Amino acid sequence: MPKLAGINHLEAVRALKKAGYVIVRQGKHIKMSDGAHTVMIPRNNPVNAYTMGAIVVAAGLTVEEFMALL
């Protein structure tokens, strides 16, 4: 099981903002980009652990780096 269980989507957005991401668009999902990577965060609470793990990898971060940003 990934180490990212139980993360609120707003906490994930805050952590990605610290990593240099900006919100591009919002709806049922939040689209964020840093220019090189684009990620979509669903507005679920909590975000599924496997989904959050895939978002972190797509963002170009490791799980440990992401956890440090929380």
What does the model show?
The protein is of the alpha+beta class and 70 residues long. Helices cover 39% and strands 21% of the residues. It contains 3 helices and 3 strands. The chain has helices at residues 9-18, 49-58, 63-69; strands at 22-26, 29-33, 38-42. Strands 1-2-3 form a 3-stranded antiparallel beta sheet. A hairpin with a 4-residue loop joins strand 2 and strand 3.
Radius of gyration (Å)? 11 Å
Q: Structural class from helices and strands?
A: alpha+beta
Tell me the span between the first and last alpha carbons.
Answer: 19 Å
Main pleated sheet: 3 strands, antiparallel
Compute the number of strand runs. Answer: 3
- Helix proportion range: 25-40%
Low-confidence stretches: none
* Proportion of residues in β-strands: 15-25%
Q: Give the ordered list of helices and strands.
A: HEEEHH
Strand order of the largest sheet: 1-2-3
Describe the secondary structure blueprint for this structure:
Blueprint (H helix, E strand, L loop, with lengths): L8 H10 L3 E5 L2 E5 L4 E5 L6 H10 L4 H7 L1
Short structural summary:
The chain contains 3 helices and 3 strands. It is an alpha+beta fold and about 70 residues long. The protein has a 3-stranded antiparallel β-sheet with strand order 1-2-3.
What key attributes describe this structure?
alpha+beta, three-stranded antiparallel sheet, 70 residues
